[in-house]
Specification:
Helix content: 10-25%
Largest sheet: 9 strands, antiparallel
Low-confidence stretches: 1-15, 17-43, 45-97, 104-124
Radius of gyration: 21 Å
Number of domains: 2
Number of strands: 17
Mean pLDDT: 74
Distance between the termini: 26 Å
Structural class: alpha+beta
Number of helices: 12
Length: 400
Amino acid sequence: MKKEETLLRAIGSIDEKMIQDAAAPKKMIRDAAAPKKPRRTGPLVKWCAAAACLCILLGASIAGKLWTPTYTDETPKQSEGLFSDAQDSTKNAGTTEDTGIMEDAGTTEDAGITENAGTTEDAAHSYVDIEQLLPKGDVISDQALIFTMVPINGRIAEYHRIFKEVDSDGASRLPKSLGVPLEGDKNYYRLLGHEEMQYLILREEDGYSLWKFSHFLVWDQEEFAAVKEGLADGTSAWSDFSWFSLDMDFSPYSYDMILRDIYGVTSGEAIESILVEPANMDNTDAGKKLQEEIGTRTITEKSQIAAIYQAISALTCLGSDNWESIGLNVGDNLPEQVRCGRYLTISLKNGGIIDSLKYTGISGQFYEYSGIAYKPLAEDTAREIEALLGIQGQDAAFQR
């Protein structure tokens, strides 16, 4: 994510057009691969004061970085609080064909939501509802984008911080919501009663913080070489991560891996519904009117959900900072981008929400914020998806 985009994200509720306008036209090497070694103070941070964030709208940009989490193997004791009994909120058993939701160590046949053993005996019978942890309404807990890197199954995942709690009076919610420690970094925990990893809790020196998955890192040869050189001369901040290795996988990856490892989804049966909304990069009165005319739709038909699942599970992610390949260039026809663009909110039967995927018929591909791009769909698949999303034939650019 570019500095300018980071600052816009820090303001909150910024439409995509503003982010595109602020994005530099030239692709930059990720800050994480930069050869300078910053001081160690905490998770990776891109920050600025609220007033400085506003300056980006006037053409200014300010950003900085702080580094890395501390490590501890101590697991805080679980306690009562935000949890429901596992038998009320989850069903046991392994992955089932009926639900398509990955599950752990259960006892019933009609499996439902993932349950794990937790870190104590009590944790095995408790389940925390993520909705009870997330900020309510329009509350913005972090005034800047703060991100960290987490090792998952031989890859590096970028997570964004939602909020941090300082447990000064024992009223903190997060330490009471700790589940199983993350393999490879015992300072991160799954949520209590959850096997999926969309959200993680980080134990820090002065409190606890909640983090949400963004994407896995994908490096090209230039980025890989920059990190390798920095490690060799001692200037790379990656040396601060005990788990980091150049043998980790930085190649493009399938969205099926995201569905399986991050969301615990293995089939379209795990999806309850898909809300489809028009793209919002045109914030003019005409643009807003066009968005109202397009309207929203909710997909609940099993066959349609299965078709969308099949398409997205076959996607290949090319990494972040790929706005140019997506085809949504600054200054291009914004009404066309709105007509051809759709934002998806996928509701899972286990209560989870996937709200990051977007689609544009201009290039026939899915993408996400941060310029996370996926390979364009095949022609016939693009036609099918665009029909399901309500993108008319005359709006989509089929001669791609």
